[in-house]
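Readers outside the structure-tokenisation community will struggle with the description of the input data as it stands. Showing the layout once, in full, would remove most of the difficulty. For illustration, here is how one protein appears when written out as sequence plus structure tokens:
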Amino acid sequence: EYPTALLGKFDEEFLELPAEVIVTSMKSNQRYFAAYKNEKLSNTFVVVSNALTTDFGYIISGNEKVLRPRLADAMFFYKNDIKNGLSNEGLKKLVFVEGLGTVYDKCEREAKIALYLAEILKIDKKDIELLQKAVMLSKADLMSEMVYEFTELQGLMGYYYAKLANEDELVCLALKEQYLPNGEDSELPSNVFSSIVALANKLDNLMALFSVGKIPTGSKDPFALRRAAAGIVKIAMEHKLAINLSQIIDEL
């Protein structure tokens, strides 16, 4: 009944974290608003108080104390992930869907689809090896502590960890954009390389899940397969990709 916006601070050392991690932590855990300065994330946040008082000092300091351990946990996860490196070995033990093997198996299927698309679209031979690497690393961040804590950061954390590992920029960007488009008004992959990685993911979802009877109904689509199909069409149209979907499905 008495909303008042208050400005709090956190230690600047936490700005070492990717901005998305800080924003997600504040939004998911505390319902804080991130604050920016000169278009960059600052070490401040906005919290809305409902207290009727003239002295908000205790409320601000209390919220600052609550936020600090949250960001400290995120920093711990981040540094552990960097130390462990971006590896897909753990995906061999992570089941994708019953009847479809592990997530590592899924990456191998996607790699075959990506190779097929690369041949159709006449991708430079020098990029094909990078394409295979991008696909095989695409789900590696699922094994990271950060994505375990914040599942909505999958793909994005792979991008940051790949950059820290000095992977090729095409590979890094493809990890970041592999799930695009992820909504009605979502952005699309920014180049053909990323588009192939995204198409491989969506095509495998459709073909694999249909093969085990996970078919959408009029009221249910738990695997978002309609969105995947729409995404394939949008990507192909955006980048003017001359692909025959029926032929791809028949061949693969």
Remarks:
- The radius of gyration is 21 Å.
- The first strand starts at residue 4 and ends at 9.
- The CA atoms of residues 214 and 223 lie 8 Å apart.
